[in-house]
Amino acid sequence: MAKKTIKKVAKAFGKKEKVLNYTSNAYHLTRPKKVGAVMALIRECQPKSFEEWERYYFEKAFTKTKQPIKVTKEILNELGERLFEKITQVVIPEWTEAFSQITKEDCIEFVYEVTIHRTYDGFVREKSVVNDNLAKRFPNVRFEESEPELDHAGDIDYLGWVGERAFGIQIKPITAQSNFGNYSVSERMKASFDDFTEKFGGIVFIILCEKEKIKDEEKVIAQIESEVKRLSA
Question: Where do you find CATH 3.40.1350.10 in the chain?
Fold first, then answer.
């Protein structure tokens, strides 16, 4: 049986892709707040052709904001113009300065830091957040480290079991917000979280921490408490 060929419609930007992708993520120019929940929309649409999807998108897409705005071609063009401004006025000057300062020693130290030091710091941070905090706040929830297939992309670090169902936890340092691209939920990660919910029943919480202290701790605890009650019902 002949293998079905999937026709791709996306354009490749070559070497420019990394710059475009970085800046777009850094300034949230293609996030749901700006362009709508595109993965949810295309799943609703189930298009048989690209033209069907494009038409559906511009009919149904609204920004994910307190006061939703209908997304138009003009809005997408405006976002593209803002992307160009950020690249030319901010990213290029910052990167040019960084490129002029990077040394071989920086590169050697960075690889060691990421591989050894940051892995250890992350491991200790995760253990502390869960064992010294969440487990004490929620004694009836069974917390366990995720299996490799759940954590392979850094999506799920721990599961919180409530009976036969579970919610997910992703733990990140607060510095992740200022790292490459800023830290926010990509469409790929959102799809991964949706898959988790479909399989385990619970939602996924992203917990930002400064050392072992949870950012907005009481808010996070309240959200998890609500989810525990829902899963217990």
Answer: 121-232
DSSP state of 62: B
What is the rounded CA–CA span in Å between residue 97 and residue 4?
Answer: 48
Q: How many CA atoms lie within 13 A of 68 on its CB side?
A: 11
Question: 121-232 sits in which CATH class?
Answer: alpha beta
Mean of pLDDT values over 197-221:
88
Q: Enumerate the H helices of 27-115 as residue ranges.
A: 32-35, 38-45, 50-60, 73-86, 92-101, 104-112
pLDDT in tens, 30-82: 999 999 999 889 999 999 999 999 999 999 999 999 999 999 999 999 999 99
**Going by DSSP bridges, is the β-strand pair 213-214/201-210 parallel, antiparallel, or unpaired?**
antiparallel
The candidate with the shortest Cα–Cα distance to 126, out of 102, 156, 157, is 157
**What's residue 123's pLDDT?**
86
Task: Give me the phi and psi of 9, to 5 degrees please.
Answer: -110, -10
Quote the CA–CA distance of 141 and 159 in Å, as a whole number: 9
